[in-house]
Write a structure and sequence with these properties.
The complex is a heterodimer. By secondary structure, chain A is of the alpha/beta class. Chain A has a single domain, classed as Rossmann fold. Helices cover 24% and strands 17% of the residues of chain A. Chain A has helices at 22-26, 66-76, 94-99, 113-120, 137-141, and strands spanning 7-8, 20-21, 33-36, 54-59, 82-87, 104-107. The termini of chain A are far apart. Chain B contains 17 helices and 20 strands. Chain B has helices at residues 6-27, 33-41, 65-78, 98-109, 143-153, 225-239, 250-257, 259-273, 282-289, 309-318, 346-359, 382-391, 422-435, 438-441, 502-517, 524-531, 534-541, and strands at residues 45-47, 52-56, 62-63, 82-85, 91-96, 127-128, 168-171, 185-192, 195-202, 215-221, 319-321, 327-332, 343-345, 364-366, 372-378, 406-407, 446-449, 463-470, 473-480, 492-493. Classes of the chains: A alpha/beta, B alpha+beta. The interface between A and B is large, with 38 and 44 residues.
């Protein structure tokens, strides 16, 4: 585990509250940060999004892609707070995470900022719409 | 054929640069092998028994002469002078060096080709009917829909770390020449009341638990194709099993939930996604369709001269009806007697490129049966074409006959295999050729896998062979009654397995039962379905 501060791609002040589990959140009305594990249903949070400042989505293994769907579902529901990818978060997955709506990363092992920069700017365009602001190629073609 | 615009080209070029960077970080120790593995797999690079294998995508099996020449150049420059066409209409090279992979991808990118998502737990290359745009029985050319989905699925941010690999197939005919219902998603373009739409079959597959995909939606409007696919994938990504690699394919999820419950969840997700703006406009589909016009056929309809008897045999077996009078689709066999199914040398690939340019409007198709199609050949050119193919060792008149065997690479190459497949295919092909029985047997689809992962489609063979390891020696089980066509069925095991010589005899015994029992016009499969397993078992084991 590293003590490095999470990498944030947002301008607002970080919410430093510890994240509670989804189960704890259900019985706790004052929590502002919650942590979602891969097997949990993110949609349980949808009625409560307005009081959440940060949602941590756990990646126990980078090969487990459930967190990508969880993130996109939260953004589709209008969640505007911080979405943080936590755990086995590696530089080669970071661009896809960004596209699914993550805007903060708290990796187990520190990331090389140069590699992060390169990874986020590698592809000039995108082929599909997701949870980010990128305009898909199909839209560029028919503007 | 589809042609890249500046966007497509920039994406493929960026991918080459990304992969070069990943290789460098691997070599510098910044990436562990475990971290690097899914990345190289998503660029088509497997580690096999003896070397790296590179699988190159041939989207929906369509390519032109120039592209085929580059495939030949890669075989010559980076491999041992040959390539291997696969059951998912791709090509793979078996003797690749990791340090060459970036250069190969760069060579491919120059002719609008790539190896993106040809492996890994992501959406793989989209397959289709090898007679697409040529067959008389289609409601539309399925390839524009496949291309639309190719772009949607390329670098998909949500669906690149799925529970397991994901294969999509698109056809547009009642006749299934692409094993559509044995895919994770099988899409059939259909016409209802003058409107085109898509049937979605979800949860088919082979492997160790073969399943035929159930129909989950009979009509998805064309302007919701991407959205519906997205809903199917999202439910799978969220709920597909990740605890056991062998239960991780979508077929297991659909089976465990039941098709009805899976469908309910997809429909719910679909209703939600309809408001999310993920669907390209119909204008994009129209743009893509513009790349698939009919070639400028000339209308002459002269029947070829059948006076050369060898040519007549080839005509009868290796040509397929075309929608345009005066034309056929010609099947180029990559199954010479005793050969390795699906292998082509660099020289043969160059011949195919020349012949495509000369006789087939510069188009080639790869078949899931590991052969090649020249889709649009004028009947007047057939004799010259056949002579040229013969000269290059590609004129074997055996399409859909016993010698037209599908075989996986098996223990000769593959680190997963339990038994060799290729030598079994070679011995069977030689046996039946020597006895001259092949023509008498007619359509008989033989498929061989060297392990239960079923890359050789043994579940879908009229006759299937499955290689297993039995106390350290190779043993071969015999299966009967499978079909990958519109009458999809799964083959059943006859009984105890055979050794590598015994399996060749067993196939001949099964063929003899058919010859004895068949009635007029019956194929092997029809006879098996009528008389059942018992007579075959009796001949094999009593």
């Amino acid at each position: 585990m590293t003590e490095q501060a999470p990498l944030r791609l947002r301008e607002d002040e970080a919410c430093m509250e510890p994240a509670v589990t989804l189960e704890a959140f259900a019985g706790q009305t004052n929590a502002v940060a919650v942590r979602i594990e891969p097997g949990e249903d993110t949609r349980e949070l949808l009625p409560h999004l307005d009081r959440l400042r940060r949602i941590d989505i756990a990646f126990p293994a980078f090969t487990d892609g459930r967190g990508y769907s969880a993130a996109r579902i939260l953004r589709e529901a209008g969640f505007a707070g911080e979405l943080r990818a936590v755990g086995d978060v590696l530089v080669d997955q970071i661009a896809y995470m960004r596209r699914c709506g993550f805007d903060a990363f708290d990796p187990d092992a520190p990331l090389d900022p140069k590699d992060v920069e390169a990874a986020l700017n590698r592809f000039p365009q995108v082929y599909q719409s997701a949870a980010d602001a990128s305009t898909p190629i199909w839209s560029l073609r028919h503007q | 054929m589809y042609a890249y615009d500046q966007y497509d080209q920039a994406m493929v070029d960026a991918r080459v640069a990304e992969f070069r960077d990943q290789c460098e970080r691997r070599l510098a120790g910044k990436l562990t092998e475990d971290q690097f593995k899914p990345l190289r797999l998503m660029n088509g690079l497997y580690l096999q028994l003896h070397a790296y294998m590179l699988r190159v995508a041939i989207p929906y099996g369509t390519l032109n002469g120039g592209q085929m020449r580059v495939l030949a150049d890669i075989a010559e420059k980076y491999d041992r002078g040959y390539g291997h066409f696969t059951t998912r209409q791709n090509i793979q090279y078996n003797w690749i060096k990791l340090e060459d992979a970036g250069d190969i991808l760069a060579d491919l990118a120059k002719v609008e080709m790539h190896a993106i998502q040809t492996s890994g737990n992501c959406i793989r290359n989209i397959s289709s009917d090898h007679f697409a745009g040529a067959a008389a029985d289609e409601v539309a050319d399925p390839r524009p829909y496949a291309e639309l989905l190719r772009q949607w699925s390329s670098f998909h941010p949500e669906f690149s770390y799925l529970p397991r690999k994901f294969k999509i197939c698109v056809i547009a005919s009642e006749n299934d020449r692409a094993a559509m219902r044995l895919h994770d998603i099988g899409i059939r373009i259909v016409e209802r009341d003058g409107e085109l739409g898509a049937q979605f079959y979800v949860g088919g597959g082979m492997g160790r638990t073969p399943m035929i995909a159930p129909l989950i939606r009979d009509f998805v409007p064309l302007d919701q194709l991407v959205t519906y696919s997205e809903a199917c994938l999202r439910v799978y990504n969220r709920y597909g099993r990740r605890d056991n690699k062998y239960k991780a394919r979508i077929k297991i999820l659909v089976h465990e939930l039941g098709a009805e419950e899976y469908t309910r969840q997809v429909e719910e997700e679909f209703a939600h996604l309809l408001d999310q703006g993920v669907e390209p406009p119909l204008a994009e589909l129209e743009r893509i369709k513009g790349f698939f016009p009919d070639p400028a056929f000339d209308a002459a309809d002269a029947e070829p001269d059948r006076s050369d008897p060898d040519f007549a045999v080839w005509l009868d077996h290796n040509t397929h009806a075309h929608k345009m009078p005066g034309h056929v689709s010609a099947i180029v066999s990559l199954k010479p007697v005793g050969g390795i199914p699906g292998d082509a040398t660099d020289a043969q690939m160059r011949v195919l490129a020349d012949l495509a340019e000369k006789y087939s409007f510069d188009e080639l198709r790869i078949m899931h049966t590991q052969n090649v199609v020249l889709p649009h050949v004028s009947k007047a050119d057939l004799y010259a074409l056949w002579q040229a193919l013969n000269e290059a060792g590609m004129g074997t008149p055996n399409a859909d006959l016993m010698g037209d065997i599908i075989a996986c690479p098996g223990l000769d190459y593959c680190s997963l295999a339990n038994a060799r497949s290729i030598p079994i295919a070679q011995r069977i092909s030689e046996r039946f050729a020597a006895k001259g029985k092949e023509a008498a047997l007619g359509e008989l689809k033989l498929k061989i896998s060297g392990c239960i992962n079923a890359c050789g489609h043994h579940h879908a063979g009229h006759i299937g062979i499955l290689g297993v390891d039995r106390k350290g020696t190779e043993n071969y089980q015999l299966l009967l009654g499978g079909s990958e066509a519109e009458d999809t069925s799964l083959a059943k095991i006859t009984g105890p397995g055979f050794d590598e010589h015994g399996i060749v005899d067993a196939v001949e015994t099964a063929a003899d039962v058919y010859l004895r029992e068949r009635t007029e016009g019956e194929r092997f499969l029809d006879t098996y379905r009528r008389i059942g397993m018992a007579p075959f078992k009796e001949a094999l084991y009593d």
